[in-house]
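Appendix C reproduces, verbatim, an entry submitted by the partner laboratory led by Prof. M.T., so that reviewers can inspect both the input and the predicted structure.
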Amino acid sequence: MRSSSEVPFTIKAFGNDRSCHDVAGVEKTLRAEYADQSVAIHYRSGRTGLTKVLFVDVDVDAVRQSYGDRPVVDFSQLACDAQQ
């Protein structure tokens, strides 16, 4: 169980890091502060409790996963994965 002071999401970008309390905040912060950058989203999996990392590219038209076919990030899926 998370402590109330623990922030569930951290956007990491080479020292320009931001913490977010929810997925809506992650998406808003990515689009506002990390346009045209590649960053990592760190969060704790609700199922395993392990820290997971999602690497993303913040493009003009969408936030995409950095690797593979570069699908658009499904923020609702991210929220489900991070739930306790």
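The CA atoms of residues 2 and 8 lie 8 Å apart. Additional entries are available on request from the coordinating office.
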